[in-house]
Amino acid sequence: MFNSISNNFGAGQITFKDYQAPNYVVLNAKVEFDPTNSAYQACQQLEITVPDLTIDRSTIGGVFVRFVETQHYSWGDAIYDGGTVLKSWIKDKNTIVVEKQPWFDENGPLILYFVTMYAQLNQGANTIKGTKQRLTVTTVDNYLRFSSDTFVVVFDHWVFMHLQFSSCTYAYRDSPWEATFEQMPADVTADVPVPGGGNQFHQDCFGMGECHIENKIFTMDSPVWVYLLGLAGMGIYGTRIVVQWYMSEKSHKVESPGIYWVMSSIGAIVLYIYGWLRKDFSIIFGESLSYYIYMWNIGIMGLYKRVPRWVIVLQAMFPLVILALISKDFQTFYDSFLHNDAVPPKLLWFGIAGQFTYEIRSVYQLVYSMRRRESVLPLGHWVLAVAGSFMIIAYGLIRHDWVLVIGQFAVFFSIRNIMLHFAYKQRIRKEESQV
Fold first, then answer.
1. 383 exposed, middle or buried (CB, 10 Å; 0-12, 13-18, 19+)?
2. 363: helix, coil or strand?
3. Helix 224-251 to helix 258-277 angle, to the nearest 10 degrees?
4. What is the Cα–Cα distance from 63 to 70, expressed in whole angstroms?
5. For residues 211 and 178, is the Cβ–Cβ distance under 8 A?
6. Pair 4, 52: CB distance under 8 Å
7. Between vectors from CA 232 to CA 286 and to CA 396, what angle results, nearest 5°?
8. Which of 161, 295, 339, 355 is the most buried (most CB within 10 A)?
9. Helix ranges, 199-280 (H)
10. Contact 207/84 with Cβ under 8 angstroms?
11. What would the mean pLDDT of 394-423 be, rounded to a whole number?
């Protein structure tokens, strides 16, 4: 391992992992730089000054360049990372050169990946022989699949790997990927560029991500905080039903407490955002059915009297603002939600049906309560809740969306409310018969 001495394109010090033989050099490094800086703008090619290498000139090698780009839409963020391969060579014992191309200068900062072997120029006997081994890839449920041309060649001090991705089970496409490479030496640790696929926003280049390999484990991350947000929303929903169940058990009948509706409203906002980030229309559809019903129940119970008017206005405007933003890029919304490759159409409509069954309980509750001019949680509300919950659990299990599955633990409280309803009715009939 060695550190660079300097460079002419405004990057910091670069740390190289290396193996140097008399007739070739293998280098591994990752460096980020800003293409708007004056040093980069002034140079004709990228040059890195390094301590003495074992070779003084090399054949042409390849260095990956990648940019990270996120486009912000009304429904959430879309990732359009991309990149390509640049020519690179060793100019002399102390200089590594990378060609300069202006293609991605406006997409900076840029990342260079050196995963490169440089062979001595104009020297015979450069052939390096190794044994090709099929790379055995293991994942949970076999959700990642690689082609038969995926292999590794292990040398004493370095490895050559050819990794050709084939497909991924749709249920895992939004999740962090992890796989075990059985034949990979355990001491190999590196960040590796992963080129492939089209780039919808940049048609002139291919998409490019980054994976990490360490201790035989291959990983590619996704935004875990999105799932934490979903769990927070489900946590709020779960807590509301626990509170309602506790108060109902105390009074021995089904209660409709104000805190239940306040927490419902907060949970709906959080899950609305979660469905947006997950690009899952069934979640958004479900929350849209109940949003204003929660507000009606809060209002009929007089709880808005303690809330500033501007807060009420913001709460009422939240879904309308989202819909207004959707109208600006409706085609992108349509493609991303209703043509989401991660959710086949039949599964999408099953999820929507589950959410509809679950959320229509709120419409039933609203009609029932409006007739009685008070907030009530009737029997039909809980029956629809149980039916919808089991459909959502099935949908979540198929999609491997544990946020949805865990969130439906409240089905047991819904069943308990049905039991309380019949127990209360039986007690009333018994009391009436005694009179």
1. middle
2. helix
3. 160
4. 23
5. no
6. no
7. 50
8. 355
9. 224-251, 258-277
10. no
11. 81
What tens digit of pLDDT does each residue of 17-56 get? 999 998 899 999 999 999 999 999 999 999 999 999 999 9
Where does residue 122 fall: left (phi above 0), alpha (psi -120 to 50 degrees), or beta otherwise?
A: left
Distances (CA, A) of 193 to 63, 83, 260, 293, 307: 10, 9, 49, 49, 52
Residue indicated by tokens 């055995």? 136
The number of residues in the chain equals: 435
Is the peptide bond prior to 109 cis by the omega test (within 30 degrees of 0)?
yes
CB atoms within 10 A of CB 150: 18
- 10 Å CB burial of residue 193 (0-12, 13-18, 19+) is buried
Q: Measured at the alpha carbon of residue 392, what is the angle toward residues 375 and 75, in degrees to the nearest 5?
A: 85
Q: Where are the chain's structural domains?
A: 2-220, 224-434
Q: Which of 329, 338, 340, 331 is nearest to 74 (CA)?
A: 329
Q: CB 112: neighbour CB atoms within 10 A?
A: 23
Tokens of 244: 């309602």
Question: pLDDT for 231-258, tens place per residue?
Answer: 677 778 778 888 988 998 888 888 889 9
Residues 84-131 pLDDT 10s: 999 999 999 999 999 999 888 888 799 999 999 999 988 766 667 888
